[in-house]
Amino acid sequence: xxxxxxxxxxxxxxxxxxxxxxxxxxxxxxxxxxxxxxxxxxxxxxxxxxxxxxxxxxxxxxxxxxxxxxxxxxxxxxxxxxxxxxxxxxxxxxxxxxxxxxxxxxxxxxxxxxxxxxxxxxxxxxxxxxxxxxxxxxxxxxxxxxxxxxxxxxxxxxxxxxxxxxxxxxxxxxxxxxxxxxxxxxxxxxxxxxxxxxxxxxxxxxxxxxxxxxxxxxxxxxxxxxxxxxxxxxxxxxxxxxxxxxxxxxxxxxxxxxxxxxxxxxxxxxxxxxxxxxxxxxxxxxxxx
Amino acid sequence: xxxxxxxxxxxxxxxxxxxxxxxxxxxxxxxxxxxxxxxxxxxxxxxxxxxxxxxxxxxxxxxxxxxxxxxxxxxxxxxxxxxxxxxxxxxxxxxxxxxxxxxxxxxxxxxxxxxxxxxxxxxxxxxxxxxxxxxxxxxxxxxxxxxxxxxxxxxxxxxxxx
Lengths: 289, 162
Ligand code: FES
Ligand code: FES
What we know:
Shape of chain A: globular
Radius of gyration of chain A: 19 Å
Number of helices of chain A: 11
Number of helices of chain B: 5
CATH class of the largest domain in chain B: Alpha Beta
Distance between the termini of chain B: 48 Å
Largest interface: A-B, 31 and 34 residues
Radius of gyration of chain B: 16 Å
Helix content of chain A: 25-40%
Order of helices and strands of chain A: EHEHEEEHHHHHHEEEEEEEEEHHH
Helix content of chain B: 25-40%
Strand content of chain A: 15-25%
Number of domains of chain B: 2
Bound molecules: FE2/S2 (inorganic) cluster
Oligomer: heterodimer
Number of strands of chain B: 5
CATH class of the largest domain in chain A: Alpha Beta
Strand content of chain B: 15-25%
Protein backbone atom coordinates (compact mmCIF):
# COMPACT_ATOMS: atom_id res chain seq x y z
CA UNK A 1 0.00 0.00 0.00
CA UNK A 2 1.50 3.26 -1.11
CA UNK A 3 -0.67 6.30 -0.39
CA UNK A 4 -0.50 7.77 3.11
CA UNK A 5 -3.64 7.52 5.26
CA UNK A 6 -6.36 10.03 4.42
CA UNK A 7 -10.08 10.50 4.85
CA UNK A 8 -12.05 9.89 1.67
CA UNK A 9 -15.05 11.91 0.48
CA UNK A 10 -17.06 11.42 -2.69
CA UNK A 11 -19.58 14.25 -3.02
CA UNK A 12 -22.23 14.08 -5.75
CA UNK A 13 -22.73 17.79 -6.35
CA UNK A 14 -20.48 20.80 -6.94
CA UNK A 15 -21.90 22.64 -3.93
CA UNK A 16 -21.14 19.66 -1.67
CA UNK A 17 -17.60 19.58 -3.04
CA UNK A 18 -17.15 23.31 -2.46
CA UNK A 19 -18.51 22.89 1.08
CA UNK A 20 -16.06 20.10 1.83
CA UNK A 21 -13.23 22.09 0.31
CA UNK A 22 -13.79 25.05 2.62
CA UNK A 23 -14.50 22.93 5.70
CA UNK A 24 -11.85 20.21 5.60
CA UNK A 25 -8.28 20.33 6.78
CA UNK A 26 -5.59 20.00 4.07
CA UNK A 27 -7.80 18.64 1.27
CA UNK A 28 -6.84 17.46 -2.21
CA UNK A 29 -9.22 17.13 -5.15
CA UNK A 30 -9.07 13.83 -7.01
CA UNK A 31 -10.20 14.08 -10.65
CA UNK A 32 -8.90 11.47 -13.12
CA UNK A 33 -6.03 10.60 -10.82
CA UNK A 34 -3.37 10.45 -13.51
CA UNK A 35 -1.18 12.99 -11.71
CA UNK A 36 -2.41 12.95 -8.13
CA UNK A 37 -2.32 9.17 -7.76
CA UNK A 38 1.38 8.90 -8.69
CA UNK A 39 2.08 11.70 -6.20
CA UNK A 40 0.08 9.87 -3.52
CA UNK A 41 1.79 6.57 -4.30
CA UNK A 42 5.18 8.21 -3.93
CA UNK A 43 3.98 10.24 -0.94
CA UNK A 44 4.95 13.53 -2.53
CA UNK A 45 1.61 14.82 -1.31
CA UNK A 46 0.18 13.98 2.10
CA UNK A 47 -3.42 15.21 2.16
CA UNK A 48 -5.55 14.71 5.26
CA UNK A 49 -8.62 14.57 3.06
CA UNK A 50 -9.15 13.39 -0.50
CA UNK A 51 -12.25 14.75 -2.23
CA UNK A 52 -13.04 12.49 -5.17
CA UNK A 53 -14.96 14.33 -7.91
CA UNK A 54 -15.81 11.23 -9.95
CA UNK A 55 -19.39 11.00 -8.65
CA UNK A 56 -20.27 14.56 -9.74
CA UNK A 57 -21.89 13.57 -13.02
CA UNK A 58 -22.91 17.19 -13.74
CA UNK A 59 -19.24 17.99 -14.40
CA UNK A 60 -19.00 15.52 -17.24
CA UNK A 61 -20.30 16.94 -20.53
CA UNK A 62 -19.11 18.01 -23.94
CA UNK A 63 -21.29 20.16 -26.18
CA UNK A 64 -21.28 23.01 -28.65
CA UNK A 65 -22.83 26.30 -27.61
CA UNK A 66 -22.85 29.40 -29.85
CA UNK A 67 -19.87 28.10 -31.75
CA UNK A 68 -17.83 27.33 -28.66
CA UNK A 69 -16.91 24.00 -27.15
CA UNK A 70 -18.13 23.59 -23.59
CA UNK A 71 -16.38 20.87 -21.60
CA UNK A 72 -16.87 19.90 -17.97
CA UNK A 73 -14.02 19.62 -15.54
CA UNK A 74 -14.60 15.88 -15.23
CA UNK A 75 -14.97 15.28 -18.97
CA UNK A 76 -12.45 12.60 -19.83
CA UNK A 77 -9.66 13.30 -22.26
CA UNK A 78 -10.92 10.32 -24.27
CA UNK A 79 -14.19 12.17 -24.81
CA UNK A 80 -12.30 14.92 -26.63
CA UNK A 81 -10.34 12.29 -28.55
CA UNK A 82 -13.46 10.58 -29.90
CA UNK A 83 -15.76 13.61 -30.29
CA UNK A 84 -17.04 14.47 -33.78
CA UNK A 85 -17.47 18.12 -32.80
CA UNK A 86 -13.85 18.32 -31.68
CA UNK A 87 -12.65 16.61 -34.85
CA UNK A 88 -14.67 18.89 -37.13
CA UNK A 89 -14.60 22.25 -35.35
CA UNK A 90 -11.53 22.08 -33.11
CA UNK A 91 -8.90 20.17 -35.08
CA UNK A 92 -6.11 21.70 -32.97
CA UNK A 93 -7.52 20.04 -29.85
CA UNK A 94 -7.89 16.76 -31.70
CA UNK A 95 -4.28 16.84 -32.84
CA UNK A 96 -3.01 17.80 -29.39
CA UNK A 97 -5.06 15.27 -27.45
CA UNK A 98 -3.38 12.36 -29.21
CA UNK A 99 -0.15 13.50 -27.57
CA UNK A 100 -1.66 13.45 -24.08
CA UNK A 101 -0.20 10.42 -22.31
CA UNK A 102 -1.53 7.14 -23.64
CA UNK A 103 -4.89 5.56 -24.32
CA UNK A 104 -4.99 4.11 -20.79
CA UNK A 105 -4.38 7.50 -19.18
CA UNK A 106 -6.73 9.43 -21.51
CA UNK A 107 -9.53 7.02 -20.59
CA UNK A 108 -9.33 8.29 -16.99
CA UNK A 109 -7.57 11.65 -17.22
CA UNK A 110 -9.83 14.69 -17.23
CA UNK A 111 -9.88 18.12 -18.85
CA UNK A 112 -10.10 19.89 -15.50
CA UNK A 113 -7.40 17.78 -13.89
CA UNK A 114 -4.92 18.62 -16.61
CA UNK A 115 -5.81 22.33 -16.51
CA UNK A 116 -5.40 22.58 -12.74
CA UNK A 117 -2.30 20.42 -12.46
CA UNK A 118 -0.88 22.85 -15.03
CA UNK A 119 2.24 20.95 -15.89
CA UNK A 120 4.25 23.30 -18.15
CA UNK A 121 4.35 20.66 -20.89
CA UNK A 122 0.69 19.60 -20.68
CA UNK A 123 -1.11 19.80 -24.00
CA UNK A 124 -4.59 20.78 -22.80
CA UNK A 125 -3.58 24.04 -21.07
CA UNK A 126 -1.39 24.87 -24.08
CA UNK A 127 -4.19 24.56 -26.64
CA UNK A 128 -6.70 26.18 -24.27
CA UNK A 129 -4.43 29.20 -24.15
CA UNK A 130 -3.93 29.15 -27.92
CA UNK A 131 -7.71 29.17 -28.42
CA UNK A 132 -8.42 31.97 -25.88
CA UNK A 133 -10.51 29.70 -23.68
CA UNK A 134 -12.24 30.78 -20.48
CA UNK A 135 -12.51 28.55 -17.43
CA UNK A 136 -15.23 28.72 -14.79
CA UNK A 137 -14.52 28.05 -11.15
CA UNK A 138 -17.01 27.55 -8.32
CA UNK A 139 -16.42 28.77 -4.78
CA UNK A 140 -18.29 29.67 -1.61
CA UNK A 141 -19.23 33.02 -3.17
CA UNK A 142 -20.52 31.52 -6.40
CA UNK A 143 -19.02 31.05 -9.85
CA UNK A 144 -16.50 33.22 -11.63
CA UNK A 145 -14.81 33.11 -15.03
CA UNK A 146 -11.07 33.32 -15.60
CA UNK A 147 -9.55 33.94 -19.02
CA UNK A 148 -6.99 31.27 -19.85
CA UNK A 149 -4.42 34.06 -20.28
CA UNK A 150 -4.80 34.87 -16.56
CA UNK A 151 -5.13 31.29 -15.39
CA UNK A 152 -1.48 30.29 -14.87
CA UNK A 153 -0.29 32.10 -11.73
CA UNK A 154 3.07 30.37 -11.63
CA UNK A 155 4.82 27.05 -12.04
CA UNK A 156 2.12 24.37 -11.79
CA UNK A 157 -0.10 26.86 -9.98
CA UNK A 158 -3.47 27.95 -11.36
CA UNK A 159 -5.01 31.25 -10.25
CA UNK A 160 -7.66 29.48 -8.21
CA UNK A 161 -8.29 30.06 -4.51
CA UNK A 162 -7.87 27.12 -2.12
CA UNK A 163 -11.64 26.94 -1.59
CA UNK A 164 -12.47 27.05 -5.30
CA UNK A 165 -12.95 24.27 -7.77
CA UNK A 166 -12.69 24.39 -11.57
CA UNK A 167 -15.98 23.26 -13.05
CA UNK A 168 -15.71 23.80 -16.79
CA UNK A 169 -14.09 25.42 -19.78
CA UNK A 170 -15.42 27.31 -22.78
CA UNK A 171 -13.26 27.09 -25.89
CA UNK A 172 -14.21 29.36 -28.82
CA UNK A 173 -13.80 27.86 -32.27
CA UNK A 174 -11.86 29.50 -35.07
CA UNK A 175 -13.81 29.98 -38.32
CA UNK A 176 -13.93 27.19 -40.89
CA UNK A 177 -10.95 27.39 -43.21
CA UNK A 178 -8.39 28.28 -40.57
CA UNK A 179 -5.20 26.26 -40.39
CA UNK A 180 -3.97 24.50 -37.27
CA UNK A 181 -0.78 22.78 -36.21
CA UNK A 182 0.32 21.08 -33.01
CA UNK A 183 3.80 19.60 -32.74
CA UNK A 184 5.88 18.50 -29.83
CA UNK A 185 9.28 17.09 -29.09
CA UNK A 186 9.53 14.28 -26.56
CA UNK A 187 11.96 11.40 -26.16
CA UNK A 188 9.30 8.75 -26.64
CA UNK A 189 5.67 8.83 -27.73
CA UNK A 190 3.50 9.87 -24.79
CA UNK A 191 6.36 11.21 -22.68
CA UNK A 192 6.25 14.72 -21.29
CA UNK A 193 7.08 17.16 -24.06
CA UNK A 194 10.38 18.98 -23.75
CA UNK A 195 8.87 21.61 -26.04
CA UNK A 196 5.57 21.89 -27.86
CA UNK A 197 3.90 24.47 -30.06
CA UNK A 198 0.27 25.11 -30.98
CA UNK A 199 -0.43 27.36 -33.95
CA UNK A 200 -3.54 28.74 -35.64
CA UNK A 201 -3.60 30.82 -38.81
CA UNK A 202 -6.06 32.60 -41.02
CA UNK A 203 -4.95 33.88 -44.43
CA UNK A 204 -6.64 35.86 -47.18
CA UNK A 205 -6.86 34.73 -50.80
CA UNK A 206 -3.33 36.00 -51.51
CA UNK A 207 -1.78 34.07 -48.66
CA UNK A 208 -1.49 37.12 -46.45
CA UNK A 209 -1.79 36.23 -42.77
CA UNK A 210 -4.82 37.97 -41.25
CA UNK A 211 -4.83 36.30 -37.84
CA UNK A 212 -2.25 34.24 -35.96
CA UNK A 213 -2.04 32.44 -32.64
CA UNK A 214 1.08 30.76 -31.31
CA UNK A 215 1.56 29.11 -27.92
CA UNK A 216 4.61 27.30 -26.59
CA UNK A 217 4.41 24.57 -23.96
CA UNK A 218 7.14 22.83 -21.99
CA UNK A 219 9.72 25.58 -22.37
CA UNK A 220 8.85 28.12 -19.67
CA UNK A 221 7.29 27.64 -16.25
CA UNK A 222 3.84 28.02 -17.76
CA UNK A 223 2.48 27.66 -21.30
CA UNK A 224 3.22 30.91 -23.09
CA UNK A 225 1.40 32.87 -25.80
CA UNK A 226 3.94 34.39 -28.18
CA UNK A 227 2.16 37.69 -28.85
CA UNK A 228 5.20 39.32 -30.46
CA UNK A 229 5.52 36.51 -32.97
CA UNK A 230 1.80 36.74 -33.72
CA UNK A 231 2.07 40.49 -34.28
CA UNK A 232 5.08 40.07 -36.54
CA UNK A 233 3.24 37.53 -38.67
CA UNK A 234 -0.02 39.37 -39.30
CA UNK A 235 0.13 41.23 -42.60
CA UNK A 236 2.92 39.09 -44.05
CA UNK A 237 2.64 36.60 -46.88
CA UNK A 238 3.02 33.18 -45.23
CA UNK A 239 6.20 31.30 -46.06
CA UNK A 240 8.75 29.18 -44.25
CA UNK A 241 11.25 32.06 -44.28
CA UNK A 242 8.73 34.43 -42.73
CA UNK A 243 7.94 31.88 -40.03
CA UNK A 244 11.62 31.17 -39.41
CA UNK A 245 12.44 34.84 -38.96
CA UNK A 246 9.46 35.52 -36.69
CA UNK A 247 10.10 32.45 -34.54
CA UNK A 248 13.63 33.58 -33.66
CA UNK A 249 11.84 35.57 -30.97
CA UNK A 250 11.23 32.28 -29.11
CA UNK A 251 14.95 32.03 -28.40
CA UNK A 252 14.50 34.84 -25.86
CA UNK A 253 12.04 32.82 -23.79
CA UNK A 254 12.69 32.37 -20.10
CA UNK A 255 13.34 28.63 -20.30
CA UNK A 256 13.29 25.84 -17.74
CA UNK A 257 16.43 23.88 -17.13
CA UNK A 258 16.26 20.31 -15.83
CA UNK A 259 17.57 16.80 -16.27
CA UNK A 260 15.71 16.51 -19.60
CA UNK A 261 17.20 19.55 -21.31
CA UNK A 262 19.23 22.69 -20.62
CA UNK A 263 17.58 26.07 -21.12
CA UNK A 264 19.29 26.90 -24.40
CA UNK A 265 18.20 23.57 -25.89
CA UNK A 266 14.60 24.30 -24.91
CA UNK A 267 14.87 27.78 -26.45
CA UNK A 268 16.19 26.25 -29.64
CA UNK A 269 13.41 23.68 -29.69
CA UNK A 270 10.90 26.49 -29.15
CA UNK A 271 11.97 28.13 -32.41
CA UNK A 272 11.86 24.85 -34.31
CA UNK A 273 8.55 23.61 -32.87
CA UNK A 274 6.97 27.03 -33.56
CA UNK A 275 8.09 27.05 -37.16
CA UNK A 276 6.85 23.49 -37.70
CA UNK A 277 3.49 24.20 -36.07
CA UNK A 278 3.06 27.32 -38.21
CA UNK A 279 4.07 25.44 -41.34
CA UNK A 280 1.52 22.74 -40.54
CA UNK A 281 -1.14 25.39 -39.92
CA UNK A 282 -0.26 27.19 -43.15
CA UNK A 283 -0.49 23.93 -45.08
CA UNK A 284 -4.02 23.41 -43.81
CA UNK A 285 -5.48 26.87 -44.39
CA UNK A 286 -8.63 26.70 -46.49
CA UNK A 287 -8.71 22.92 -46.15
CA UNK A 288 -5.51 22.60 -48.19
CA UNK A 289 -4.47 19.35 -46.53
CA UNK B 1 -6.53 -2.37 8.61
CA UNK B 2 -5.31 0.83 10.16
CA UNK B 3 -7.10 3.65 8.33
CA UNK B 4 -10.62 4.51 7.17
CA UNK B 5 -12.41 1.72 5.36
CA UNK B 6 -15.44 1.35 3.13
CA UNK B 7 -17.55 -1.55 1.95
CA UNK B 8 -17.51 -1.99 -1.79
CA UNK B 9 -19.10 -4.32 -4.32
CA UNK B 10 -17.14 -4.91 -7.49
CA UNK B 11 -17.41 -7.38 -10.34
CA UNK B 12 -14.11 -8.76 -11.55
CA UNK B 13 -14.00 -11.19 -14.45
CA UNK B 14 -17.70 -11.87 -14.01
CA UNK B 15 -17.45 -12.66 -10.29
CA UNK B 16 -18.92 -10.28 -7.72
CA UNK B 17 -16.88 -9.45 -4.63
CA UNK B 18 -18.23 -7.69 -1.53
CA UNK B 19 -15.30 -6.44 0.51
CA UNK B 20 -14.31 -4.01 3.19
CA UNK B 21 -11.33 -2.05 1.88
CA UNK B 22 -9.06 0.59 3.29
CA UNK B 23 -9.76 3.82 1.37
CA UNK B 24 -6.10 4.43 0.58
CA UNK B 25 -5.67 1.03 -1.11
CA UNK B 26 -5.00 1.29 -4.83
CA UNK B 27 -7.20 -0.88 -7.01
CA UNK B 28 -4.13 -2.89 -8.02
CA UNK B 29 -3.11 -3.63 -4.43
CA UNK B 30 -6.70 -4.48 -3.53
CA UNK B 31 -6.95 -7.04 -6.32
CA UNK B 32 -3.54 -8.53 -5.69
CA UNK B 33 -3.29 -8.49 -1.92
CA UNK B 34 -6.85 -8.69 -0.72
CA UNK B 35 -8.42 -10.81 -3.46
CA UNK B 36 -5.33 -12.81 -4.44
CA UNK B 37 -5.79 -11.88 -8.11
CA UNK B 38 -2.08 -11.59 -8.83
CA UNK B 39 -2.40 -11.77 -12.61
CA UNK B 40 -2.34 -7.98 -12.74
CA UNK B 41 1.28 -6.96 -12.33
CA UNK B 42 2.78 -3.90 -10.71
CA UNK B 43 5.96 -2.46 -12.18
CA UNK B 44 6.36 1.23 -11.51
CA UNK B 45 3.25 1.94 -9.41
CA UNK B 46 3.09 5.48 -10.74
CA UNK B 47 1.48 5.19 -14.12
CA UNK B 48 4.44 4.76 -16.43
CA UNK B 49 4.89 1.08 -17.29
CA UNK B 50 1.39 -0.16 -18.09
CA UNK B 51 1.89 -3.56 -16.42
CA UNK B 52 -1.14 -2.97 -14.20
CA UNK B 53 -3.54 -2.20 -17.07
CA UNK B 54 -7.06 -3.54 -16.62
CA UNK B 55 -10.32 -2.86 -18.40
CA UNK B 56 -12.57 -0.69 -16.23
CA UNK B 57 -16.13 -0.82 -17.58
CA UNK B 58 -14.55 -1.94 -20.84
CA UNK B 59 -11.93 0.82 -21.07
CA UNK B 60 -8.24 0.36 -20.38
CA UNK B 61 -6.98 2.01 -17.22
CA UNK B 62 -3.96 1.82 -14.97
CA UNK B 63 -5.04 0.07 -11.78
CA UNK B 64 -2.13 1.57 -9.83
CA UNK B 65 -3.68 5.00 -10.46
CA UNK B 66 -7.10 4.21 -9.08
CA UNK B 67 -8.36 3.68 -5.58
CA UNK B 68 -10.17 0.46 -4.82
CA UNK B 69 -13.13 2.46 -3.45
CA UNK B 70 -13.56 3.99 -6.90
CA UNK B 71 -14.33 0.55 -8.30
CA UNK B 72 -17.49 0.27 -6.18
CA UNK B 73 -20.33 -0.72 -8.48
CA UNK B 74 -18.10 -1.12 -11.51
CA UNK B 75 -16.96 -3.99 -13.69
CA UNK B 76 -13.36 -5.00 -14.23
CA UNK B 77 -11.63 -7.35 -16.60
CA UNK B 78 -8.12 -8.52 -15.74
CA UNK B 79 -5.78 -10.88 -17.54
CA UNK B 80 -7.34 -13.75 -15.56
CA UNK B 81 -10.64 -13.14 -17.32
CA UNK B 82 -9.45 -13.09 -20.93
CA UNK B 83 -9.36 -16.79 -21.78
CA UNK B 84 -12.73 -18.39 -22.57
CA UNK B 85 -12.06 -21.32 -20.18
CA UNK B 86 -9.38 -22.86 -17.96
CA UNK B 87 -7.95 -25.00 -20.76
CA UNK B 88 -8.44 -22.68 -23.72
CA UNK B 89 -6.57 -19.53 -24.71
CA UNK B 90 -8.00 -16.37 -26.21
CA UNK B 91 -6.88 -15.87 -29.84
CA UNK B 92 -4.76 -12.94 -28.66
CA UNK B 93 -3.01 -15.16 -26.13
CA UNK B 94 -2.46 -17.84 -28.80
CA UNK B 95 -0.94 -15.22 -31.08
CA UNK B 96 1.41 -14.10 -28.28
CA UNK B 97 2.52 -17.70 -27.75
CA UNK B 98 3.07 -18.31 -31.45
CA UNK B 99 4.92 -15.05 -32.17
CA UNK B 100 7.23 -14.91 -29.15
CA UNK B 101 5.16 -12.03 -27.82
CA UNK B 102 6.54 -12.65 -24.35
CA UNK B 103 9.70 -13.75 -22.66
CA UNK B 104 9.58 -13.23 -18.88
CA UNK B 105 5.88 -12.37 -19.09
CA UNK B 106 5.97 -9.47 -16.68
CA UNK B 107 4.49 -6.94 -19.10
CA UNK B 108 2.10 -9.46 -20.68
CA UNK B 109 -1.02 -8.87 -18.52
CA UNK B 110 -0.93 -5.18 -19.40
CA UNK B 111 -0.12 -5.83 -23.05
CA UNK B 112 -3.04 -8.23 -23.39
CA UNK B 113 -5.64 -6.02 -21.70
CA UNK B 114 -4.44 -3.00 -23.68
CA UNK B 115 -4.64 -4.93 -26.93
CA UNK B 116 -8.10 -6.36 -26.17
CA UNK B 117 -9.45 -2.81 -26.12
CA UNK B 118 -7.26 -1.72 -29.05
CA UNK B 119 -8.32 -4.57 -31.35
CA UNK B 120 -11.96 -4.18 -30.37
CA UNK B 121 -11.84 -0.55 -31.57
CA UNK B 122 -9.49 -1.13 -34.47
CA UNK B 123 -9.85 -4.67 -35.84
CA UNK B 124 -7.54 -4.10 -38.82
CA UNK B 125 -4.67 -1.93 -37.58
CA UNK B 126 -1.44 -0.99 -39.30
CA UNK B 127 1.88 -1.81 -37.66
CA UNK B 128 2.33 1.88 -36.78
CA UNK B 129 -1.08 1.96 -35.10
CA UNK B 130 -0.18 -1.10 -33.05
CA UNK B 131 3.06 0.54 -31.94
CA UNK B 132 1.21 3.65 -30.81
CA UNK B 133 -1.43 1.43 -29.22
CA UNK B 134 1.13 -0.25 -26.95
CA UNK B 135 3.25 2.87 -26.42
CA UNK B 136 2.01 3.07 -22.85
CA UNK B 137 3.31 -0.40 -22.02
CA UNK B 138 6.97 -1.07 -21.34
CA UNK B 139 8.61 -4.42 -22.09
CA UNK B 140 12.16 -5.08 -20.93
CA UNK B 141 12.58 -8.36 -22.81
CA UNK B 142 11.19 -8.65 -26.29
CA UNK B 143 12.20 -5.46 -28.05
CA UNK B 144 8.48 -5.22 -28.92
CA UNK B 145 8.97 -6.93 -32.31
CA UNK B 146 7.27 -10.13 -31.19
CA UNK B 147 4.49 -8.22 -29.47
CA UNK B 148 3.72 -6.18 -32.57
CA UNK B 149 3.75 -9.34 -34.70
CA UNK B 150 1.45 -11.04 -32.20
CA UNK B 151 -0.98 -8.12 -32.21
CA UNK B 152 -1.17 -8.09 -36.01
CA UNK B 153 -1.56 -11.88 -36.08
CA UNK B 154 -4.28 -11.71 -33.41
CA UNK B 155 -6.12 -9.06 -35.40
CA UNK B 156 -6.20 -11.41 -38.36
CA UNK B 157 -7.31 -14.40 -36.24
CA UNK B 158 -10.10 -12.37 -34.68
CA UNK B 159 -11.26 -11.11 -38.10
CA UNK B 160 -11.18 -14.63 -39.56
CA UNK B 161 -13.19 -15.94 -36.62
CA UNK B 162 -16.05 -13.58 -37.40
S1 FES C 1 2.36 -0.32 -12.27
FE1 FES C 1 0.73 0.89 -13.01
S2 FES C 1 1.61 1.85 -14.74
FE2 FES C 1 3.31 0.80 -13.86
S1 FES D 1 8.26 -10.11 -21.68
FE1 FES D 1 9.56 -9.51 -20.07
S2 FES D 1 8.95 -7.48 -19.81
FE2 FES D 1 7.92 -7.96 -21.59
